């Protein structure tokens, strides 16, 4: 469903999960689900697609957390063209035959978001009118290694070169310890992640060959299934080593975003009252987010300056470590260096 790739098709199918994906057309944002199966129609109507037009393709995913607020990944709404609509309750990647298509009123990114690798990869979208669908509750409880979680999305289904799923898909994974996850990511050989460390706001899951999130899944829900048949939101798709190569994927950890969500959104509900200590390794000290730099137009050949040490390549939704050579290499495809 994603890329280290940021998984976004809205911006390529979600921006930094295969690294960071953000596109400029209706198919621009997209992380995907590799493996898995079609989700039952009408069962997960709090699942949201981010679009550039009412009936266009969903490039990133999201979750309806209140009648007027959607939670998604920060990289889905930063660094490129922002979505203009959300599709709530739809089973399909594109079209308007079911669900609701609601214009976006406002977007608020986490104040410490810089890129998915550093964490805090979360944003909240305010809708122009309330949705009729029932929102999903959020979980303050830390999900522990070994717990079962479920991923939902329209991401690519056969790896980075594949196409997005035309219908909503689901796949089940186990949560992976952050230290173990970081070791696996570093050992993958993925450029730019040789020294990556999982921080408190990262949540890892998966790691089974042929089963993963991918481009187009970015921002989409990772949920815990409860004994009463309900689901609780525990993560949002962030990034990963593309795709299905046996390396755990990375998600934003919802239990670490309680203050941000409570300060920003209205009408959401938490399904538990206590916030346990997060079982993650040494914390990553965030730096305040800097104003978003608009993506360059095709005529300017891309920008080669950078403040965060990485450059975003909209054509593939990937981020790459910054270097003058890298910028020159991709200049023809308009690398954006925030």
Quick overview:
By secondary structure, the protein is mainly beta. Helix content is 7%, strand content 28%.
- Supply the CATH class of the largest domain: Mainly Beta
What do we call the CATH homologous superfamily of the largest domain? Answer: Trypsin-like serine proteases
Q: Whole-number average pLDDT?
A: 79
Question: What's the domain count?
Answer: 2
Residues in helices, as a percent range: under 10%
Largest sheet: 6 strands, antiparallel, barrel
Number of H- or I-type helical stretches:
3
- Low-pLDDT ranges: 9-32, 273-310, 312-322, 324-338
Radius of gyration: 17 Å
Strand order of the largest sheet: 12-13-14-18-17-16
CATH architecture verdict of the largest domain: Beta Barrel
Which band does the percent of strand residues land in?
25-35%
- As for the CATH topology of the largest domain, it is Thrombin, subunit H
Strand segment count: 20
What class would the helix/strand composition place it in?
mainly beta
Order of helical and strand elements? EEEEEEEEEEEEEHEEEEEHEEH
**What form results from the Cα inertia axes?**
globular
Family: Belongs to the peptidase S1 family.
Signal peptide: 1-19
Protein name: Aste57867_5739 protein
Domain Peptidase S1: 33-266
